[in-house]
Input
Amino acid sequence: MHGLHHSLSTLPSFAKAANKTAKKSTFASCKTLRIRAMRAVVQRVTSASVEVDGNMVSEIGPGLLVLVGLHESDTDSDADYICRKVLNMRLFTNESTGRGWDQNVMQRNYEVLLVSQFTLYGVLKGNKPDFHVAMPPQKAKPFYESLVDKFRKSYRPDAIKDGVFGAMMKVNLVNDGPVTMQLDSSQSSKSTNEETGKTIN
Output
């Protein structure tokens, strides 16, 4: 063991320099790979509701509760991806066949409750959360409203509910399973026809 310690401590200077360069390269790669995308946390629920100031503003029965985090760089293509994937995720059992993970929320004629949640893009600086990569409120409000509209146009308008943007909300839910999935719109670059089983690199 002593010999091993000695050999490591007496590495040539060029080897030490190479090791430092490798560490810097790894750190740079991690920064490059930082996700820049719209984020959605999807929960299969038997019921969910939103209260603001003690008043019920939205509620659904069986369906999906979707917490939506908007990144400062999000565009309409990110919204299109999240809308399409949430509505087509096969998170429900086919009661006719008994097959699990077989039907989406539209096939079951269930509801969707959307809730804007900028804290999905919080990062810790020490022990304090920082939200600088989240989309600023003045831009996020109309963008979120357009996302809700996409959902309503893609499904039954009355089946899409939402909370109150920017309000202090109390979100109640009964998670069914539990089943919780996270989606990032950056995944859309991996496949443009995933629903048909084809993968495009």
Summary: The longest helix spans residues 13-32. The CA atoms of residues 79 and 186 lie 11 Å apart. Confidence is low (pLDDT under 50) at residues 1-11, 21-33, 190-201. Strands lie at 39-52, 55-60, 63-69, 111-116, 123-125, 128-130, 160-162, 169-184.
